[in-house]
């Protein structure tokens, strides 16, 4: 697992793993409906966040 920002070279050399006809950001789609699974929740903020 990678902690931190990924540069454009990462995306250049790691292709998308799933495709969706309705969702534009392909890297966020698991394409396995109705199956139990783990997931990662990414939250973006304009201000620095403090975690506990």
Automatic annotation (TrEMBL):
Residues 3-34 form the Peptidase C2 calpain large subunit domain. InterPro entries: Calpain_domain_III, Calpain_III_sf. It comes from the Eukaryota. Gene3D superfamilies: 2.60.120.380. This is Peptidase C2 calpain large subunit domain-containing protein. The lineage of its organism: Eukaryota, Metazoa, Chordata, Craniata, Vertebrata.
